[in-house]
Amino acid sequence: MKSFSLIFLRFYVKLQDAYASEANKVGSWKLIGYVAPGAKSAGDIGETTNFKYYAGTSPAIDATEGKAISGEDAFEAQAVWGAVNVAALNECGIQNETTAAAANWKVSAKAATNGNSLLYKAEVTTNCKPLTPTFDALSSKGYDDN
Questions:
Q1: Within 13 A of 78's CA, how many CA atoms are on the CB side?
Q2: Does the residue 145 lie in any domain?
Q3: Would you list the DSSP string of 19-45?
Q4: How many CB atoms lie within 10 A of CB 50?
Q5: Count of domains in the chain?
Q6: Which residue has the higher pLDDT, 70 or 31?
Q7: How far apart are CA 43 and CA 63, in angstroms?
Q8: Segment of 57-61, 114-118, 126-130 carrying the highest mean pLDDT
Q9: Is residue 68, in this structure, part of any structural domain at all?
Q10: Cα gap 119→13, rounded to integer Å
Q11: Is pLDDT of 119 > 80?
Q12: In the chain, which end has fewer C-beta atoms inside a 10 angstrom radius, N or C?
């Protein structure tokens, strides 16, 4: 995965963190203004020569309302960003998945214990790890703690 895509991922995290801090909610790509690589506008699925980029499903990619971080119907840990390779990349075979949760490269988010911020966990499948050996370093410290 090119560093270009990782820059877009970091941009997503910054936008989501700002929105979560101000609204105490997780926002959709459209709501926070995130434009995926290859997308024409915020809220669109992105597509480049080698990848398609998917959002999580809660809140939906084009939702106009965020999902609360705490309280009764609060956001639960789930994939919020995923990159699916549509071309074979060395040992990383073509992927036909259409969700962030099933992507070879994915980032999950969950509410932090302070109630107004998020923690992130970056994961890459074993066959694709040699292409981005430090992708999981994007994870927040403490994500896997209880």
A1: 17
A2: no
A3: HHHHHSEE--HHHHT---TT-SSTTSP
A4: 17
A5: 1
A6: 31
A7: 8
A8: 126-130
A9: yes
A10: 10
A11: yes
A12: C
